[in-house]
Specification:
- By secondary structure, the protein is mainly alpha-helical.
- It has one domain.
- About 55% of the residues lie in helices and about 0% in strands.
- It has eight helices and no strands.
- α2 packs antiparallel against α3.
- The longest helix is centred in the last third of the chain and has 32 residues.
- The protein starts with 6 loop residues before the first helix and ends in a 21-residue tail after the last helix.
């Protein structure tokens, strides 16, 4: 939808909403709100896992994971700041009107550093992404491949299916394709401006934040993983301490 060339479809994914700050525009689209929904589902699923767990270690793990997911959720919505600004804006906000180059120059748009009064604003965005990438690879690539060789029942229970490796590869390929298309459109737009032409088409508001697509895919993968962990596998507890854990490393999966 975002690269379809249809302005309405593009605005639904990531709108342009002057007079609001351009860095906040994408917060109101389907992509960002889809991320918010997935994070909310994760928080609820992890809370359900904590409620159902019998072993204190499992319960504690679910509680900590739920709190961390809640923190990421609050970061993503900037603690409601953008919605408060939207509600308090005294000027008219039109979702689908054209926003010409003279009103908003995407070539001068700076990459968003995160929301105000949050950890991201303290220039830790890069560090968060590095940690996220390391965790993604460790949890969905290394662990599924290593779990069958590990005797620890907790590791085998928590390990994702080995199909998760293919999902991560697909995510990386999709992310690369998104950035390739985005760079191509940006170069085309810049070339028209350099020739003194007024582009008759618009770059989307994610011009410098195309990584939002990869974030959505990552949140989806995590949401599926925690749902399988909580509802698709037998939660280890004291009563089955001598039984093998059911997980990716178990026989039959």
């Amino acid at each position: 939808m975002y690269f379809s060339g249809d302005p309405v479809a593009q605005r639904l994914v990531a709108p342009k909403l002057p007079p609001l700050d351009s860095h906040s525009w994408r917060e109101f689209g389907l992509l960002e709100n889809g991320q918010t929904l997935l994070l909310a589902v994760m928080v609820a699923t992890l809370a359900a896992g904590a409620w159902r767990a019998r072993a204190w270690r499992v319960r504690a793990g679910f509680v900590l994971a739920a709190l961390f997911a809640l923190f990421i959720l609050l970061e993503e919505i900037d603690y409601g700041k953008h919605w408060r600004e939207y509600a308090g804006c005294e000027e008219s906000i039109e979702w689908f009107r054209p926003v010409p180059h003279g009103e908003w120059n995407p070539l001068e748009e700076k990459k968003a550093q995160g929301a105000s009064f949050t950890v991201h604003q303290r220039h830790l965005t890069t560090e968060f992404k590095v940690v996220g990438d390391v965790l993604l690879i460790a949890l969905f690539v290394v662990l599924p491949l290593a779990a069958p060789r590990v005797r620890n029942r907790w590791v085998r229970w928590a390990a994702p299916s080995r199909y998760a490796v293919l999902t991560v590869i697909a995510m990386l390929l999709t992310s690369q394709a998104v950035h390739t298309v985005g760079r191509s459109l940006r170069h085309r737009y810049r070339d028209e401006v350099r020739r003194g032409e007024a582009p008759q088409w618009e770059l989307g508001s994610l011009v410098n934040n195309l990584s939002e697509f990869r974030e959505f895919n990552a949140y989806y993968l995590y949401a599926v993983y925690v749902a399988v962990l909580v509802f698709g596998r037998r939660l280890p507890g004291a009563a089955d301490a001598n039984e093998p854990a059911r997980g990716a490393g178990s026989q039959g999966e």
